Description:
Layout: E1 7-8, E2 18-22, H1 27-36, E3 41-44, E4 48-51, E5 61-66, E6 69-72, H2 76-86, E7 91-92, H3 98-106, E8 130-133, E9 138-142, E10 144-145, H4 168-178, E11 187-191, H5 197-204, E12 208-213, E13 227-231, E14 244-247, H6 253-266, E15 272-277, H7 284-291, E16 296-299, E17 307-312
Parallel strand pairs: 1-3, 7-8, 11-12, 11-14, 12-13, 14-15
Antiparallel strand pairs: 2-4, 2-5, 3-4, 5-10, 6-9, 8-9, 15-17, 16-17
The protein binds S-adenosylmethionine.
Amino acid sequence: MGALELRKGYDPGVKPSQLCLIAEGYQNELAEELASLGVTQLFATKQTIGVLEDQVEPAWAQCVWRNVQSIEVDSIADGQRKLSAISKYWRYYGDQFNRRGSLIAEGLNLGKPSRPYRFPSRGEKSPPPVFTLGESGLIYYTDQIHRPAFDGKVSFVENKSTPPSRAYLKLWEALTILGDWPRAGDSVIDLGSSPGSWTWALAELGANVASIDRSPLAVELKNYQNIQFTTGDAFSVEPRPIDWVFSDVICYPEKLYDYARQWLDSGHCQKFVCSVKFAGKPDHSVINRFRQLPHSRILHLTHNKNEVTWMSHPKIS
Ligand SMILES: C[S@@+](CC[C@H](N)C(=O)[O-])C[C@H]1O[C@@H](n2cnc3c(N)ncnc32)[C@H](O)[C@@H]1O
């Protein structure tokens, strides 16, 4: 089913296994990617695409809700009663019938609103389930959410003084999703590092950072003893034993893919975070090739623009 033929709004007659939340401005990318993966799109709202299959993780979804359950309710009080019987705490995602959904949410224990993360953070330990309204009498809910935030948006307490750009936010987001980050004394490589906000973030964690770019790092970073900067071509760096590889190089996705394969095949490193950048429309087939690499996820992060982030890590099954 193509994206344009989708039923608008939720469909009470079909049971989605997953809801894919749409990042603002990226509806086409998500719908096209789902189509390229052969996923059955059941319906679309302004913010969500419901899909039949489970266990798919489209890169362009802001968030995926897995194992979605539905309950029918005949009033606001009935909704509150049924949800309270399922869980003591809830979170609410406003989409269709938002006024009615908000009224149901008002009678539930929503806990504290989430605040910006202070990196590094492991996020909430066991976050409560989340619900949204499909029809006025239909609730979808799940406790299986594949991002740190139930709506997929991750915000951080920012450092507005030292890092030379805000690019470190996408690195923090990737590491928060992984639930792992370089520790003091780890050796890491940062390819395409100028002006240096990823290098700054890694150095702040106490890692020894080999930082490489054709252009220099910002002068603010000159006093960090644990940064060794080299001017040069990132792709001339041969795989060697190292704890993490990071890349934010602007290059063709295929070039990065081939380079990543060299590292993976070498067995010298198991942890990677790399931006895959697109000059125009995203190439879903190359995204899928990255996804199929061992222990990999590829996601469009809150802080990504026309790019996605590939991560490979032993924790990813
Ligand atoms: C988006 S910027 C990196 C921003 C950086 N991560 C930060 O946080 O400040 C991309 C960088 O890739 C570098 N670059 C592009 N091709 C390169 C190559 N073959 N070798 C080294 N650097 C390259 C560019 O010079 C540019 O500084």
